[in-house]
What we know:
Blueprint: H1 3-20, E1 24-32, E2 35-43, E3 46-55, H2 69-85, E4 94-102, E5 105-109
Parallel strand pairs: 3-4
Antiparallel strand pairs: 1-2, 2-3, 4-5
Amino acid sequence: MNKRATGTEWEQKAAEYLMKHGMQIREMNFRNRQGEIDIIGRHEDYLVFVEVKYRSSTEKGSAVEAVDYRKQRQICKVADYYRCIHHLGDNTAVRYDVIAIQGQEIRWIKNAFPHIFTR
Length: 119
């Protein structure tokens, strides 16, 4: 199986996991020129942008480590664009979560990183 197909499979499993735990999925694989957000949903009082990372083993590092500062910054840029085109102002409560899948273990890290302001 190629990387894209594997990623899609695990993103779908992550979405199912999130829905079982109360998240309403609004969109999956939202893309623009600057990047992609795997899952966008509503949970509690937040608009949540979720990055899904899968690692079959720790050989190339952990799934959590893969969401580095560069990736976080990219996610925030795409999230800003999403909020803009959907007319969601600064008063919209936003959260950035990570679903880290290591082997078969799924870990939901709520509020995994703060918003990174960019130009």
